[in-house]
Amino acid sequence: MTTQTDTPILELQEVSFRYPDGSVGLDSCSLSLDQGSRSAVLGANGAGKTTLFLHLNGILRPQSGTVRYCGGGLDYGRCGLHGLRSRIGLVFQNPDSQLFSASVREDVSFGPLNLGLKNNAVQERVHEALQSVGLLDHADKPVHNLSFGQKKRVCIAGVLAMRPEVLILDEPMAGLDVAMQAELDGILDKLHGEGMTIIIATHDIDFAYRWADSVTIMTKGQCAATWETQRIAESLVEFASYGLGIPRTAELHNCLVEAKLLSRGKSLPRSHCELLREIAAVK
C-alpha cells in the first residue's frame, strides 16, 4: 500500500498539445490528482480525455507545459519512460489494441518479462494479477476465444502484473453488460482498497458520481472544472451547463429535499441504493 503524501501523485501544469493535422488535443490543461484517490474524467467525444491519459504515462509529450509525477517532471528518456510506465499503468478503451499474445498467460507475462524479472517472479506476478481480476481459470486460454469483458480484464491484469501505483482506464465500462460492469466495479474497489490511485474516463455520470472522489469535466482540450464529488449536488446548475447531463441521484435527492420529504444531511446519497435506503428510513 502506498503512503499518503501532500504532493499530488500526478499533475499537469498548462499542458498543450496539437496533433500533426492541427487538431487540438490539449489546450493549457491543468489538473492535480491526489495519491490514493479515485478520479473520474468526463467529457464529450473529442474533448481530450484520451490525449490527457496518453500524457500521464509519457506516451505523448507536451508541446508546452509540464507533467509531474510525485512532484518531479517526467524523464522522457528511454530508461525514464520504462520506469514511469511500470508505475503508471494505462488500459485502453478497446482491449484488442492492447492484446497481442496468443494466450492469456503470455500476454500478462509480457510486462514483467520486460522488467527483466526471473521466471519465478514473473509467474508469481501473473498468478497474482489474474487472481485479482478473476481469470486464473483462463490463464492458458487463447486470447481470441475470450469475451469482450474478459479481454478487458486481461488488459487490466497485464497492467497489474507491473505492480503500478496508478491505474488509468479509458472508458472501462464501455461495451460491458450489467453483470460485467458489476464485476469490474468490484475489482476497482478492491484495488483502491489496497491503496492504488485510479483514474477513469467515462460517459456514465451516475457511475462517476457514485464511485469517484472527484470529477473533472473536459471541454475542447481543457480541464474546465473539477469538483469534489460530494459537492456536485450543490452545483447542479453549473454542472449541467457543460451539457453532459447531471447525476440522477443528486437531482432526485435535491427534489425530495425541496419538497421537504427528506432532509439534507452531512452525507448525501451517492447511488440510487443509498437514496432508497434514506427514503425507506423516513417515518
Describe this structure in words.
The chain has 283 residues and is of the alpha/beta class. It has helices at residues 49-56, 78-87, 104-114, 119-132, 148-160, 178-193, 205-211, 236-240, 248-258, 272-280; strands at residues 10-18, 24-33, 38-42, 64-69, 72-73, 88-91, 166-170, 197-201, 214-219, 222-228. The protein has two domains: 10-245, Rossmann fold (3-Layer(aba) Sandwich); 247-283, no CATH class. It contains ten helices and ten strands. It has a six-stranded mixed sheet with strand order 6-7-8-3-9-10, with helices on both faces. A hairpin with a 2-residue loop joins β4 (64-69) and β5 (72-73). The protein is globular, with a radius of gyration of 20 Å.
Q: What is the CATH domain class of the largest domain? A: Alpha Beta
Given helix and strand content, the structural type is: alpha/beta
Average pLDDT works out at 91
Q: Into which percentage range does the β-strand content fall?
A: 15-25%
Question: What is the number of beta strands?
Answer: 10
What is the CATH architecture assignment of the largest domain? 3-Layer(aba) Sandwich
Supply Rg.
Answer: 20 Å
The backbone outline, from C-alpha atoms, is globular
CATH homology superfamily of the largest domain: P-loop containing nucleotide triphosphate hydrolases
CATH topology of the largest domain: Rossmann fold
Order of helices and strands: EEEHEEHEHHHEHEHEEHHH
Number of helices: 10
